[in-house]
Each structure stands twice: as C-alpha cells, then as structure tokens.
Amino acid sequence: MRNRRTQSGFTLIELIIVMTIIAILATLAIPYFAAAVKHAREAVLREDLQTMRMAIDSYTMDKQKAPQSLDDLVQEGYLKAVPEDPMTHSKDTWVTDTSDAMSNVDETEPGISDIHSGSDESGSDGQPYSSW
C-alpha cells in the first residue's frame, strides 16, 4: 500500500510568497495614504482659518472693535468653540496677529486682525503653514 499524506495546509514557501506580496502592496500604499492624510489636514486648516477669519471680521464690524482673544469670539457666539489646529493638534497654538491701526477712535487697545497655524512645517505647496 502506498502511504498518502492526508494532511492539508499551506507550505512554508506559500506563506512566504503571500507575506512578500502583502509587504510589497503595503510599501506601495503607505506613501499614498500619508499624502492623503496630509491633504485632508490641510483642507481642514484652510476651512478653519476661513471660518475664524470670518468670525473675527464679523465681530469687528458688529462690536466696532476687534476681539482681544479667540475666547471673545466663543463667548459672544461667533464660534461654537475654538477649533483644534490640525497641524499641531492643539487649541492653544494658534498665532494671532494684532492690528496696529485702530479702526475706531474709541478703541484703547488693538485687537486680533488675523490668525495663522502655529506649526513650523511647510504645506504641500511649499509655503509654511504659519503663513496661510
């Protein structure tokens, strides 16, 4: 009688081949995934900056003075909350520009005129996030 192998399963060579194929596919996919994540974070940053700049402008027009802090925008209802900077993952790293020229004679101190990300990194367009 012949001795037959009745055991079934994968051989070591088959497992190595499958693992190699998976590793090659992962190596190709990871850079695309990282670029997509960066692009999404940049889109969120652009949207947040636009929203906060509009809130600063609206506050300034309504109150006839610029806000003194981002919390003023939240307390007066122009923003629901200060958004998290998507590049630094913190609410406290926003960089605000204060206006030197007072738009109203009654203003005693300048307020926030613009806002930027606090990140030192550069965007996909080569410009630093802090200049957006």
Word description of this protein:
The structure is a single chain. The protein has one domain (13-131). The protein has a two-stranded antiparallel ribbon. It has 2 helices and 2 strands, in the order H-H-E-E. The model has no long low-confidence stretch (mean pLDDT 87). With 132 residues, the chain is mostly helical. It is elongated, with a radius of gyration of 27 Å.
Supply database-style keywords.
132 residues; mainly alpha; two-stranded antiparallel sheet; 7% strand; elongated
How do the helices and strands line up, and which of them pair or pack?
Blueprint: H1 12-63, H2 70-75, E1 95-98, E2 112-116
Antiparallel strand pairs: 1-2
Summed up:
The chain is mainly alpha-helical. The chain contains 2 helices and 2 strands, in the order ααββ.
Multimeric state of these chains?
Answer: single chain
How many runs of DSSP E, i.e. beta strands?
2
Percentage of β-strand residues: 5-15%
What's the helix count?
2
The averaged pLDDT comes out at: 87
Shape: elongated
**Widest sheet, order of strands:** 1-2
Low-confidence stretches: none
Task: Please state the structural category.
Answer: mainly alpha
The tally of structural domains comes to 1
Reading the helices and strands in chain order gives HHEE
Outline the biggest β-sheet.
2 strands, antiparallel
- Give the C-alpha Rg: 27 Å
CA-to-CA gap between the ends? 81 Å
Helix content: 40-55%
